[in-house]
Amino acid sequence: MAGGRVTGLQEAVWDAAKSICDSCGLTGANIGCVKRGCKAVTHYPCALTKGWHLDTNQYIPKCNLHRIT
């Protein structure tokens, strides 16, 4: 946000629309692992079924490979 306005939203939507989910292979993946160097992206329902760690209090997603670290 900048001055009460959301910035970068349009770019984020377009990026998600082009991102391919590592779990199901469909486009629209909008959750990415926070581990440096990890390129895993997924949809929310796919993250739940694949064992991602989704910290909803701090909004920190970790893929199933990095959920411990």
TrEMBL record:
Keywords: Metal-binding, Phosphoprotein, Zinc, Zinc-finger. One of its GO terms (cellular component) is nucleus. Residues 1-67 form the PHD-type domain. One of its GO terms (biological process) is regulation of transcription by RNA polymerase II. InterPro entries: EPHD, Trans_Reg/Chrom_Remod, Znf_RING/FYVE/PHD. GO terms for molecular function: zinc ion binding. The keyword Metal-binding applies. This is Uncharacterized protein CG5098.
